[in-house]
C-alpha cells in the first residue's frame, strides 16, 4: 500500500528561540529539525550528551547551519530540572516556543525518579510541570506558545487519585495513562490560568497517534531486550502505511506549536487514530481531559509534588 504523505507548512521562525524536550530521538529529533529548518534557534535539553551530539550532527546534515544546541537535563530528577531552569534564566533570553515532548512508556519494572515518584508520572508529567514553572519568566517574556505531548493512552484508564505517585500496587500501562491524562489536564489548565492571570503565554496539547520509536522498541537501558509481538506488529503496520512514522507522528505537535491556525487550549492529533495520513487537525477532547475540576486539582497537586509555584 502506498503511504499517503502529508505535511504542513511551518512559518518563518527566524529570531525565535525554541525549547524541545526529548529531541535526541524519535519525534523530538524531527520536531527540532523542522523548527531549526524554519529559522528558529532550538535548545535541546538531553539526558545523554553522546546521543545529543549525534542528533545535532543529524540535524545539521539535514539543514546545514541549523542553530541547535544541547543542554543537560534528566527529567527523572527535579533537581536536574531546577538546574536547567536556573541556567536558562541566567542566560536570560525570552523563549517563544516550547514543546514538552520527552517521555517514557511502560518500563519493565516499577521504577522511580530521584525523588521517589513513579518514573512515568515523574518524567512525562511532573518534570515538565516543573520545567514550565522554572522557565515561566522567559516564557512570559517571549509570549511563548507551549505545546504538551500526551497520548491516545490518555483515553483509557483514569487518574489514580488515591496514589498519584504510585507508591502502592503498580500497573505500568495504567501508570502511563495516568501520566498522560495528568499532562493533558496540565496543558489545558495552563491555558486557562494564563488567560485568567494575563501571563501572556498560550498552551495547547497534542497526541501523535502511534509510531514505532524507541519508546516502544526493545531498550536494554531499561531492561527490555526484545521487541514484543505488539511492537513488531506496529513496525509492520507503520511500514505499510497503516500507522505513523516518527516523521508523520510529530506533525500534530509541529502544527500545534507553530501553525497560525492552531488555537490555544485545543487538542490536536492526526486525523485518524491510526495516523494513516499523518495530517494533523483538532480533536475532540478525551473524556478524561474534560473536567476542569480534575485539571485544577491536578495542577495544585503537581505544583506541590514538584515544589514549584506559578504566578497568581
Ligand atoms: N511513539 C508513539 O507511538 C507515541 C504514542 C503516543 C504518545 N507518544 C509520546 O510522544 C512523545 C515522544 O515519544 P517518541 O515516540 O518520540 O519516543 P522516543 O523514545 O523516541 O523519544 C523520547 C525522548 O524522551 C527522552 N527522555 C526520556 N526520559 C528522559 C529523561 N529522564 N530525561 C530527559 N529526556 C528523557 C528520550 O531520551 C528521548 O529523546 C512522548 O511523550 C511519548 O509518550 C508516543
UniProtKB/TrEMBL annotation:
<dbReference type="GO" id="GO:0016491">
    <property type="term" value="F:oxidoreductase activity"/>
</dbReference>
<dbReference type="InterPro" id="IPR002347">
    <property type="entry name" value="SDR_fam"/>
</dbReference>
<comment type="similarity">
    <text>Belongs to the short-chain dehydrogenases/reductases (SDR) family.</text>
</comment>
<keyword id="KW-0560">Oxidoreductase</keyword>
<dbReference type="Pfam" id="PF00106">
    <property type="entry name" value="adh_short"/>
</dbReference>
<dbReference type="InterPro" id="IPR036291">
    <property type="entry name" value="NAD(P)-bd_dom_sf"/>
</dbReference>
<protein>
    <submittedName>
        <fullName>NAD(P)-dependent dehydrogenase (Short-subunit alcohol dehydrogenase family)</fullName>
    </submittedName>
</protein>
Amino acid at each position: 500500500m502506498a503511504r499517503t504523505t502529508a505535511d504542513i507548512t511551518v512559518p518563518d521562525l527566524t529570531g525565535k528561540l525554541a525549547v524541545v524536550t526529548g529531541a535526541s530521538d524519535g519525534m523530538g529529533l524531527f520536531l527540532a529539525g523542522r523548527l531549526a529548518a524554519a529559522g528558529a534557534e532550538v535548545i535541546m535539553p538531553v539526558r545523554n550528551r553522546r546521543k545529543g551530539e549525534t542528533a545535532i550532527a543529524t540535524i545539521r546534515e539535514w539543514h546545514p547551519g541549523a542553530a541547535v544546541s544541547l543542554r543537560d537535563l534528566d527529567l527523572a530528577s527535579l533537581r536536574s530540572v531546577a538546574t536547567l531552569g536556573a541556567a536558562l534564566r541566567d542566560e536570560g533570553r525570552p523563549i517563544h516556543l516550547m514543546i514538552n515532548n520527552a517521555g517514557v512508556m511502560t518500563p519493565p519494572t516499577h521504577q522511580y525518579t530521584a525523588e521517589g515518584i513513579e518514573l512515568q508520572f515523574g518524567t512525562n508529567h511532573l518534570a515538565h510541570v516543573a520545567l514550565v514553572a522554572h522557565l515561566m519568566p522567559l516564557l512570559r517574556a517571549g509570549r511563548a506558545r507551549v505545546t504538551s505531548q500526551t497520548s491516545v493512552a490518555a483515553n483509557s484508564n483514569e487518574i489514580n487519585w488515591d496514589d498519584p505517585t504510585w507508591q502502592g500496587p503498580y500497573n505500568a500501562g495504567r501508570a502511563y495513562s495516568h501520566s498522560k491524562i495528568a499532562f493533558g489536564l496540565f496543558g489545558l489548565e495552563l491555558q486557562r490560568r494564563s488567560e485568567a492571570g494575563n501571563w501572556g503565554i498560550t498552551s495547547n496539547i497534542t497526541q501523535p497517534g502511534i509510531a514505532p520509536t524507541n519508546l516502544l522498541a526493545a531498550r536494554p537501558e531499561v531492561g527490555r531486550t526484545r521487541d514484543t509481538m505488539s511492537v513488531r506488529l506496529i513496525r509492520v503496520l507503520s511500514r505499510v502505511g497503516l500507522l505513523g512514522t516518527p516523521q508523520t507522528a510529530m506533525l500534530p505537535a509541529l502544527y500545534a506549536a507553530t501553525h497560525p491556525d492552531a488555537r490555544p487550549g485545543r487538542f490536536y492529533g492526526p486525523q485518524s487514530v491510526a495516523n494513516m495520513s499523518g495530517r494533523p487537525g483538532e480533536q475532540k477532547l478525551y473524556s478524561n481531559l474534560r473536567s476542569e475540576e480534575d485539571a485544577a486539582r491536578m495542577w495544585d497537586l503537581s505544583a506541590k509534588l514538584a515544589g514549584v509555584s506559578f504566578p497568581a
